Amino acid sequence: MKQVISDRSSGILLHISSLPGPFGIGDIRNGFDFIDFLAVSGQSYWQILPLSPTSTIFGNSPYMSFSAFAGNPLFISPQYLYEQGLVDAEDLQSPLFSNYFVEFDKVAAFKQGVLKKAWDNFQSSTEKSSFFNYCRNASSWLNDHALFMALKQKFNQEPWYKWPVKLRNADKKSLLVASLELEESINYFRFEQYLFFTQWLQLRSYANDKSIKIIGDLPFYVGGDSVDVWANQQIFELDVKSREPSHVAGVPPDYFSETGQLWGNPLYRWNTRKGEVKKQLYDWWSKRLSTIFSQVDIVRIDHFRGFESYFSIPASDKTAEHGKWKRGPGINFFKEMSKRLGSLPFIAEDLGVITPAVEQLRDDLGFPGMKILLFAFDGNSDNPYLPMNYEKNCIVYTGTHDNDTTIGWYLDPDVPVESKIQMKKAANNDADEISTVHFDLMYLAMSSTADLCILPMQDILGFGNDCRMNTPATIGENWIWRCAPDNLNTDVAYWLKEQTAFYGRLPRNQESVNNIELKK
Question: End-to-end distance of the chain based on CA atoms, in angstroms?
């Protein structure tokens, strides 16, 4: 396997939804400005969360979606639609949105109105060849996606396994009738994806031209109420009659949870003895990987351990206590995907309770793992998250989207005082100055031997837990944080580039910290 990270380098973790912009949520137009910020601050990577559509039904989580292939229509830039002549200036007169958090319902209502107007105008356009070409090239997943979304709309967002039996079971004749009946709606949902992918691929090209690589995120499992399961029922463990999952995903009881975690995602039929089903499963994964690698340069595999072994829980259980570990597809899966798709630069999310077998799979594949500094300070000198214990082929983070911010961690009364003292000692700074704690952790990350250092934007700016992105196993104020426009300024860019240069993480084509310039 080709080495994923070839040079000592650094980057920023910031989801596109958190970018500053005028329409209530970060969008692709704002991504161009952030690429400029990354370039002038000496960064080489931009790490994002999944680009999949989100829904209030799933708490707006990018890790639970109706589709593993589609892009999020909320990220489509209204400004670019105006420049294309698809909407008028008055269509961009939006409500007053917050600069500090995403109001998802309000944003969705506004964006849907703009997209519907763009669709109305597009239908009278004489130049549609690029749209038809896109639909043809993406047909392997787009047709199912558009029909699924049209049916969801028809049935008031009911889960697909509650639909009339023939549609639930994807009966071909019934689907043909539905396709004719819902043709207008289906074409609209195709149009959404055409706009998203057209804009996104321009952004990716711009990033690469600026020597910035985008790190995407691939959830291991998909949602039960998704087109992925509905259109590919044979590759998931489903009940024959109800078509709901017979077994679901989760993790067993541990120190943090006496009853384990019951995630509820349907399981893949990795261990089927039916050759045709296995082929269909691998075909689906091949299409999925091909799609995400068309969007990004490197892919972080969430729950990487599922490829070595996965936890199977009877769907009727209320807790994860009686689940069983089952063998995953292992290294043969990656060999097959490489044979089909070529070199696949992956990052293994190897956090939590990881067995030697999972570590062996990761190392045999040559994938870099993740080191989270907030996990390092438990008093044990052999803690794998302490910088002195790193191998070079890894990626160090101060924290991730699922953690406290550094300042939030330090202020948390539930974090043992001893852990905070150990962190200060590791940073060789015994001054109890809360406002500079994030500098201590950034110093440990940047100065480490890890090939790549990724810093959450919140930690660069020294923000507290009011700016935390997600608190796992909770529903509420997650995924809403936005970076206000004033925070991405020249002073921050200059300081970050200076730090990046000092720790030897600048791109090879940048040898000085001078000539900082940001677009106004």
Answer: 42
Could you tell me if 35 and 45 are in contact, meaning their C-beta atoms sit under 8 angstroms apart? Answer: no
Q: In Å, what is the CA distance from 245 to each residue of 164, 230, 251, 280? A: 18, 11, 17, 18
Given a contact cutoff of 8 angstroms between Cβ atoms, the answer to whether 146 and 74 are in contact is: no
Q: What is the pLDDT of residues 102-127, one digit of tens each?
A: 999 999 999 999 999 999 999 998 88
Whether 378 sits among the annotated catalytic residues: the reply is no
One-letter amino acid of 493:
A
Per-residue pLDDT of 208-258, as tens digits, reads: 999 999 999 999 999 999 999 999 999 999 999 999 999 999 999 876 678
Single-letter amino acid code for the residue at 99:
N
- Give, in degrees to the nearest 5, the angle at Cα 201 between 198 and 205: 140
The CB density around residue 374, as the number of other CB atoms within 10 Å, is 22
Report if pTM > 0.85. Answer: yes
Cα–Cα distances in angstroms (integers) from residue 147 to residues 57, 71, 198, 230, 242, in the given order: 19, 16, 21, 11, 21
Phi-psi bin for 324: left (phi > 0), alpha (psi -120 to 50), beta?
beta
Distance CA 470, CA 483 (A): 15
The catalytically annotated residue of 349, 350, 440, 459 is 349
Two structure tokens written together for 322? 């009686």
181 is a catalytic site residue: no
Catalytic residue among 144, 302, 308, 350: 302
Active-site residue, 144 included: no
Q: Which residues pair with 455 in a beta bridge?
A: 12
